[in-house]
Amino acid sequence: MLYVSGEISGDSWGIFAFLCAALWNLPTIPALNSTDEVGAGQSIQKTYDLTRYLEHQLRTLAGTYLNYLGPPFNEPDFNPPRMTRAEMVPSATVDFELWRNLNDNARLAANYRAYTHLLCYLRSMDGQVAKAELRKNLGHFCTSLQGLVVSIASVMSSLGYPLPSPLGSANPTWAQGPGATSTHNDFLKKMDDFWLLKELQTWLWRSAKDFNRLKKKVPPAALMLRLEARGF
């Protein structure tokens, strides 16, 4: 304020009154839209990053595991037909346009179911591998994949979607350890493992696209401010 001889001048009172009126009529301060929306954006970004990490991790693991299985599984041009038993592994093969036209809830539910099932099969492989180092790598990958399942569940929860029911039995007899597979030909068991890795690779590739698309729909936390101003 301006002071003249210890008293407030008339002009200063006018300025003061103007400032008070201006402050009184300012819009309400912007606030966060909701904690859930901020949490959704963070969960989606985390899930996308984890999916890309698993893609990279699987490339190394798959190469090592196929070398462990030996020829013809480790040959670059080996592409056998999908066998009946392998149909129990959730297939990532679907029409691209059909998949894109699903709503977010349906795609998230399909991802959640698939990885829950794939994790079960992968753990069965872990229990049958003879090489300690490969078992360690499989165990580490299983832990990361379990983290992806939890992360997808977190995304669904933050968006208000219920978790889907499981795909029937998650413990098929041929995936329950050496004792349960003893009646099957060793080559057929290797075929099961081959298809598991192939399907897992395709699921991760497509999931990365799903979460990249989804994170563009839900803005980052910094952009989640919504004006709730008077008159807007």
UniProtKB/TrEMBL annotation:
MF term (GO), any: cytokine activity
Pfam families: PRF (PF06875)
UniProt keyword annotations, A-Z: Cytokine, Glycoprotein, Secreted, Signal
Gene3D superfamilies documented for this protein: 1.20.1250.10
GO CC aspect terms: CNTFR-CLCF1 complex; CRLF-CLCF1 complex; extracellular space
InterPro entries linked: 4_helix_cytokine-like_core, PRF/CT
GO biological process, one term: cell surface receptor signaling pathway via JAK-STAT
Keyword match Membrane: no
Keyword Secreted: yes
Location of the protein in the cell: Secreted
Family assignment from sequence similarity: Belongs to the IL-6 superfamily.
Its job: In complex with CRLF1, forms a heterodimeric neurotropic cytokine that plays a crucial role during neuronal development. Also stimulates B-cells. Binds to and activates the ILST/gp130 receptor.
Known partners and oligomeric status: Forms a heteromeric complex with cardiotrophin-like cytokine CRLF1/CLF-1; the CRLF1-CLCF1 complex is a ligand for the ciliary neurotrophic factor receptor/CNTFR. The CRLF1-CLCF1 heterodimer binds SORL1 (via N-terminal ectodomain); within this complex, the interaction is mediated predominantly by the CRLF1 moiety. The tripartite signaling complex formed by CRLF1, CLCF1 and CNTFR also binds SORL1.
Protein name: Cardiotrophin-like cytokine factor 1
Gene name of the record: CLCF1
